[in-house]
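Work Package 3 (structural annotation) set out to generate three-dimensional models for the target panel prioritized at the project kickoff. During this period the team completed the workflow that converts sequence records into discrete structure tokens, so that structures can be stored uniformly alongside our sequence database. As a representative example, we reproduce one entry of 341 residues exactly as it appears in the project archive.
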Amino acid sequence: MSKAAQLDRDAVRIGDLMIGHGLPVVVIGGEDARWLRLPADGDSPETRAGGASDKAAAETAAETAGDGVGEARARWAGPLLVEPSSAADLPAVARHADAVVLGPAWAREPGLVRAAARLGLPVIIQRGSDQRGHAATPEEWLAAADHCADEGNEAIVLCEGGGRTEPAASVLGLAPDSAPDLAVVRAARERTGRPVLAALGRDGGLAGAAVAAGADGLLLDPAAPPEARAAAGEAATVLAALLRPQSPRTLTEARGEIDRVDAALAVLLERRALLAARIQRLKPVGGFRGRDMERERRLVAGMARRAPRLGVRRLAPIMNAVIEAGLHAAEEERARDRDGG
């Protein structure tokens, strides 16, 4: 069996990373997986492939690609995704990568898509604007997935990167493919059953919206800054735990999901403590003396409707501990303020 170990249509394995419905949201370009884009010369994958008249140049480019992918493989032990700039790069991708990423220009070239599919690696097919500002239509994008399947490779992940080229993008200083169409993310997931990534470019600002829209993963540009990677990681961890109920299949997966839920709980508890501290400043009588026990009982009853497995009896001591922890924190903060820091 090839490295493209396809489990079923809605789950694809890339190295030791699983992408698909019911699984954790992954961040490619972050700590889950790395993405290497090979340097391009010329205008299109076809012109960069190198013809008979320029065989030496093509061979040199292929050697350079091999060196670059080999170095990336040596530096990173996790899943490595490589975007070739031409067909001449494919042998190096096959030797070292765990998946091949096809940029927007490839989706309109069935021959190149089929050649990539024959590598036996998982294939990530991007939709977005190429260097000329041309964008593949959703139909061309899905047709490219069919071309891969025709070659016997069903380990396909779709990646939506937009493709809108309105003048507003340049006015705002955005690349034309920097905003994935989140409606397309959801529609592609529902129509094909295949995993879908949202390509965020170098900006993690849409990470939360992409997770909410149902993206199975977030694809960051290899040059994305640390703050974009951090935003994507937080969305994949915290928001996914809140919005995307998972179905872990193993003990390791279940523990990982618990860790993500605990991360979301920590964020919410910190936010609650900050709000509680603000309330203490606004109330005529603050601190423990100002507790409203009737309000707390209503709060627990409302929570029990959302958490029937725990119910009022189990939730009451939990929320009492949360409220008291917030009050202690607020009192300590007030004491520091009085003492001048």
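The chain is about 50% helix and 15% strand.
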